[in-house]
């Protein structure tokens, strides 16, 4: 058995295939690898596995890099591209051939189909049984693939850091292809060679790759290379326990930012807690995550994605975020000019207290920049009855006489109007909010008055007194 890499400085990697966006499960895998490397003072590498030239696209690569940057998952050195190392992959395949651990297989697609059909008829798993496994005579110019001569006796054991001890009988392993007939490497060969050459010590990935680990170990041992430490993390399921799909929230990382209005620190925190825990801690900073992260507390069962929990967590991080940063994030949503951001920043402490997403934050801020006369929503319009407009007229007169246009000054004036009418404050605040914002929800009514300023506030109230809503 080959030596383990576990005693060497830690090197992890994230190796996505650029055939689509960086999905949420891949982002969690990247985060776990990043945290493990940072916790141990090691290296975190990024390798784009672009061997599928038909499906790999520049747009997908850009989306992966963009998603990694947004989540704050910086990698050490430049990103690697698997297609750059095809010559090296082929070199290793031929070394295995020379050492008797691989063979040229000249089986045709028809012969393979016959074996597959026979296995199906006999209701047994299909395993390649190549007549060329022990052959020594080359077949001239006939096309061939290079297959690994997989061990057939005994068993292979993996001491997985998440799954525990996992054993597979070698008779279940097949003679899989290393090099295709056109000379291109398969994924199974390329990933092993690249991990070895990049010095990867810990392979942390989804448990859908666990079966691959046994095949990849066969290559590693045949080459006499150090074996990595494996940690296969359970996949993410939807709240109903089914495999995570788009209806559950299996979107690209960019969609969480652009379509759902999430902050990267909230997504990072949520993904960290999705399958890993540190006592009862729910809110975990980046610094704490680096200090605490280990593989021992990664759960063995699939995690369930709960969008409501993510949204609530995002609300926490919005409340904690810098007001200027939030203003910069939602200004494009509102179509604001730079000079309008100052008002947005001043309003932010009140606005962010009610928002769970950046979109909600933007919607909540919309009234500040709305043009007169306001376009009232149905609920707000329903509040402005004839009696309500009479109250608004009284409020307008009282506010017009306010010299101290502050929270306290405006409150004193509005409370006096409510008291004179024999009403609780809320009975006046509701139609006043509708007139000032066009909505039935907003920051506190006195905060709204102060933020809008005296002139704009009086003008909006007057619009609703003079023009009864339908």
UniProtKB/TrEMBL annotation:
The record lists the catalysed reaction(s) as: tRNA(Glu) + L-glutamate + ATP = L-glutamyl-tRNA(Glu) + AMP + diphosphate
Where does motif 'HIGH' region map? 16-26
UniProt subcellular location:
Cytoplasm
Keyword Zinc-finger, does the record have it?
no
Q: What does this protein do?
A: Catalyzes the attachment of glutamate to tRNA(Glu) in a two-step reaction: glutamate is first activated by ATP to form Glu-AMP and then transferred to the acceptor end of tRNA(Glu).
Annotated keywords:
Aminoacyl-tRNA synthetase, ATP-binding, Cytoplasm, Ligase, Nucleotide-binding, Protein biosynthesis
Motif 'KMSKS' region covers 243-247
Instruction: Supply the source organism for this entry.
Output: Sphingomonas hankyongi
Protein name per its UniProtKB record = Glutamate--tRNA ligase
Gene Ontology molecular function: any one: glutamate-tRNA ligase activity
Looking up InterPro entries in the UniProt record yields: aa-tRNA-synth_I_cd-bd, aa-tRNA-synth_I_codon-bd_sub2, aa-tRNA-synth_I_CS, aa_tRNA-synth_I_cd-bd_sf, Glu-tRNA-ligase_bac/mito, Glu/Gln-tRNA-synth, Glu/Gln-tRNA-synth_Ib_cat-dom, GluQ/Sye
Signal peptide as annotated in the record: none
Question: Where does the protein principally reside?
Answer: cytoplasm
PANTHER family the record matches: GLUTAMATE--TRNA LIGASE (PTHR43311), GLUTAMATE--TRNA LIGASE, MITOCHONDRIAL-RELATED (PTHR43311:SF2)
Cite the record's note on assembly.
Monomer.
The Glutamyl/glutaminyl-tRNA synthetase class Ib catalytic domain is annotated at: 10-311
Q: What is its EC number?
A: 6.1.1.17
**Domain of life of the organism in this record?**
Bacteria
- What Pfam families is this protein classified in? Anticodon_2, tRNA-synt_1c
Tell me the ranges covered by the Aminoacyl-tRNA synthetase class I anticodon-binding domain, including all copies.
325-464
